[in-house]
Specification:
cell membrane, mainly alpha, transmembrane, membrane, Vanadium-containing Chloroperoxidase, domain 1, transmembrane helix, PAP2/HPO_sf
Length: 481
């Protein structure tokens, strides 16, 4: 059966479409089938069809996510059960280099290979099976599997879905939109590359860290700063060099962005172009999904998360951490309010009920970046350096989703969100830098600590159930529904 006939059949039987999405995502992730199946092409074609026929974006994302998680899980346990027999099974008995490439990739990247492998075509279907063969702990695999599947679903679903929606709605992109889009993507990947470099090269085992320690030691004042801010958790106190570099970088970018927004005419060309695009791709199903996402950054929910995490710190007797969360909350509120009042920039004028306050920066984005980033940093510090990235990635993903939802709901401009991300990252880096000398004891994870993520998820579900209808109405556009 050809791909065209599969697509034609699904087009004639739309009740099976979502199962087809699940089956494609599932099959593409399987160790053997995924090697011979051009799943990326089929997935893209299905997403174009989904956008063109106005299937629910939320449903398509969920079924893609579930399929990807299930496929990798099956591959993992296949590798765990048949680990010694796999080299003799077809097709690996004829193509042993596939296993060799997968094993080399896993040896090089360790647990990160599960995440990286999601987006690397030649080895992607093999990595989960290799992880199972090498007895990677199930809990660690499942965590990375779920986190990476979120990013995979978004990256694989949205481009095709948007193209399909553009075909259905006859969207005309704003002038120079392609150049803006690709410039933004390049800058985003450049920022991610810088973050990865910082993550890999600025911990105490690396030569750059030792060089910076030598530089600080050459001056009495700098040496005092180094020792005062070093964390006393180990015999050789470690200086929070990544936090310092992150603070300096984000501060420079933040100041540059603020001066640019103040200098240029408002809204920026990028702001208006993205707002015009949001107008054309907005649908009722998309509105529902965007409201659910933007609720992650609501102050009431974030305060609830901060309260739960403070309770966790009380149980762990990390009282300095509670003071830090309170100080960060006050600082974030003060800076956001001060910037809004100083710039007095107007929001996009599309909502039935005008939002109170000014636009610049996005408070939801600042709050999501600060609270999720701070919680992630507290949890990540208890792990070895090479195992911390899933927490940071998860926090960054949540902040980006909240920021993107603010733009697509037309309650903020793109420039507001960029400022919010930079300001939030700056506050987190400053908080970690100041907290370092008080970071004396480990949180010592226990099995019963799983109550925290469970309580956070239940808290969001409860908030969504109680507040969604009111939030939905708050973001209604003029003359849209």
């Amino acid at each position: 059966m050809s791909f065209d006939s599969i697509l034609d059949w699904l087009n004639s039987n739309p009740e099976w479409f979502l199962f087809g999405v699940f089956l494609t995502a599932f099959s593409e992730s399987l160790a053997i089938i995924g090697l011979i199946m051009p799943g990326a092409f089929l997935m893209f074609a299905l997403m174009v069809m989904a956008g063109n026929q106005d299937f629910s974006l939320q449903a398509v994302l969920i079924w893609s996510f579930v399929g990807a998680v299930t496929g990798d899980a099956v591959s993992f346990y296949f590798g765990r059960i048949f680990k010694h027999r796999i080299p003799s099974l077809w097709p690996f008995n004829r193509k042993p280099e596939w296993l060799h490439q997968g094993r080399s990739f896993f040896d090089q990247h360790g647990g990160k290979s599960i995440f990286i492998g999601r987006f690397v075509g030649p080895v992607r279907p093999i990595i989960p099976m290799i992880a199972g063969m090498l007895a990677m702990p199930s809990g660690r695999f499942l965590f990375v599997n779920v986190v990476s599947a979120v990013g995979w679903a978004i990256c694989y679903v949205l481009p095709g879905y948007i193209i399909g929606a553009a075909m259905r709605l006859n969207i005309s992109l704003p002038e120079n939109f392609k150049s803006i889009f690709f410039t933004t993507i390049i800058l985003l990947f450049g920022f991610i590359a810088l973050a990865v470099w910082v993550y890999q090269n600025l911990h105490p085992e690396r030569s750059i860290y030792r060089y910076m320690k030598k530089v600080f030691s050459s001056h009495d004042t700098l040496e005092t700063v180094w020792h005062k801010l070093s964390s006393p958790r180990t015999d050789d106190p470690s200086f929070p060099l990544p936090s310092l570099l992150t603070l300096i970088t984000c501060l420079a970018l933040f100041l540059g962005w603020v001066f640019w927004v103040d200098y240029a005419s408002h809204p920026l060309f990028t702001d208006q172009a993205l707002l015009d695009l949001a107008k054309q791709i907005h649908t009722e199903q998309g509105h529902t999904a965007l409201v659910a996402i933007t609720m992650l950054g609501d102050p009431n929910l974030l305060y609830f998360c901060a309260g739960l995490f403070s309770l966790y710190l009380i149980i762990k007797r990390q009282y300095a951490g509670i003071v830090l969360i309170a100080a960060v909350t006050a600082l974030s509120y003060t800076l956001v309010t001060s910037l809004k009042d100083a710039f007095e920039l107007a929001r996009p004028d599309l909502l039935v009920t005008a939002f109170p306050g000014h636009s610049f920066p996005s408070g939801h984005t600042v709050g999501a970046t600060v609270y999720f980033g701070l919680i992630a940093s507290f949890l990540a510090q208890e792990l070895a350096t090479h195992k911390r990235w899933p927490f940071y990635f998860g926090a960054l993903l949540l902040a980006l989703l909240v920021g993107g939802s603010r733009v697509l709901l037309a309650v903020h401009w793109f420039s507001d969100v960029v400022c919010g991300l930079l300001l939030g990252a700056m506050i987190v880096a400053l908080a970690r830098l100041i907290y370092s000398p008080f970071n004396q004891h480990s949180l010592t994870f226990k099995i019963y600590d799983c109550w925290l993520p469970i309580a956070l998820v239940i808290g969001y579900i409860g908030y969504y159930w109680y507040e969604f209808e009111r939030q939905y109405q708050k973001y209604i556009w003029l003359d849209f529904f």
